[in-house]
Amino acid sequence: MFSEVEVFISGSEHLVFTLVLSEGSIVDFLAEKRDSSRLIGSVFKGIVKRECKSLDGYFVDIGLHKEAFLQEKNTCGKKLKIGDSVIVQLKREETELKGAKVTCKINLPGKYIVYFPTVKKLKISSKIKKYPYSRELAQFVKEHLRDNEGVIIRASALKASKEDILKELQELRNLWNEILKKSGKVSKGLLHEEIPGFAKVIRDYWGYIKEICVDNADVWKEISGIFGEEIREKLRFSKDFEKLLKNFSFYQLISRLFSKQVWLKNGGFIVIEETEAMVVVDVNSGEGCGESFEENALRTNLEAVEEVARQIKLRNLAGIIVIDLIEMRKEETKDYFLREVKKIFEREGLKVKVHGITSTGLLELTRKREGNSITEILGEECPCCRGRGKVKSSEFILYTIEKEIERHVGRKVEIRAHPRIVRNLREFLRRKKLNGLVSIKEVWEEEPDYYRLFFSDYS
How far is residue 124 from each of residues 136, 151, 156, measured CA to CA in Å? Predict the structure, then answer.
């Protein structure tokens, strides 16, 4: 079970970043667009359009661009036919090539429990299983469940009264009844939208939050509106997180998320390439850090995997992940390395499956995809290479510029930027009433996402 955490939420017009720290270390990170619909976890009504026996499932029209896929094992034991109406929850968003994935096994998360209105189950969070009181709590909850209801008891339940848990159970039942009532009024489409990602983080860490620092007034209001008076005493407003963080720079962390190259402590580095099919990581050695080539390879590879684990968490990398390691020649070295790799991912709390090392020295990993990666959220197709690469989106660039200006209040600013982003930049400055304080110079010779800020004092 984790100790107390601090939550830092930085927002702009279009983006929100959420960072969770425990004892100075990053335990969670999230980036999201403010104007995008919150689909994962949302509940829809759909119509079965096709049965696909080869895929053991159905294609369902839930009102999105593409038909969603519902596996038969996720229909709660129901045999569906074309034309049937179903209530489903979105598990994975649609992409350019594939429709969304959905399930009939609806779950409605609360602060203390996750409620399953149609699935009979009772589970305890792995974080609190070792505590004897968790079993007493499970028995108490079991006595108050109805037929075909289920609950997962969350870690925060240990810090709640039994009355609070029963109150939340009833609130989630009421929410399900509202969803059912709405489903009777529509043929298909959204029935219940999940709360924003930054609010989900607060809900997930509810019983262990020491403080929530927010730098955006609109985000502050949203948090207050969702959680009310329960959270007010823990909310803190700050325009500059750099003054609150001791071990690293919040804004440098965010600005480096797009970099393909990440340096290691021993002077080596890794290169991260994200493609449609997989994520490929290349490990490059630095200065020797062992008494032999084998020991140097082992140490470098382990350091690289530790950084890969960190980048998986920060960038939300998923799917097939392949790491091109420094060659290790001895089988006993490889066996020891694989044991340590599994420990690294366990320490980071990442559900990553380690498949082993191939004959060509590639470490193969897989991770279940949940939401989009940082590159997908903060990037857009490069106008120069016709979609073969990504550059920073205008929203991301405007976010970093806004935060830099806020941290240098009272100083003149000159922004040198590629013409691709100048139009959006001028509109942004107009909305923020910063035209008189900021000048812009177009720079054609640099990359399409180039920008630099130069500050000077008023004379």
Answer: 11, 9, 11
- Expressed in angstroms, the distance from the first to the final Cα of the chain is 55
| DSSP symbol at 361 | S
Q: Annotate 132-153 with DSSP letters as a single string.
A: HHHHHHHHHHHHTPPTT-EEEE
Q: How many CA atoms lie within 13 A of 299 on its CB side?
A: 17
CA 91 to chain centre: 14
CA 323 – CA 344 distance, rounded (Å)? 15
- Give 84's pLDDT tier (boundaries 50, 70, 90): very high
**Model confidence pLDDT, tens digit, residues 127-167:** 898 889 999 999 999 999 999 999 999 999 999 999 999 99
Phi, psi at residue 109, to the nearest 5°?
-75, 140
d(CA 376, CA 180): 34
CA distance 245 to 231: 22
Tally helices (H) and strands (E) across the chain.
11, 26
Contact present, 28 and 9 (Cβ < 8 Å):
no
Tokens of 12: 């702009």
The contacts of residue 370 (CB under 8 Å, 6+ apart) are: 40, 92, 316, 318
Tell me whether residue 126 is exposed, middle or buried, using C-beta atoms within 10 angstroms of its C-beta: 0 to 12, 13 to 18, 19 or more. Answer: exposed
- pTM score above 0.85: yes
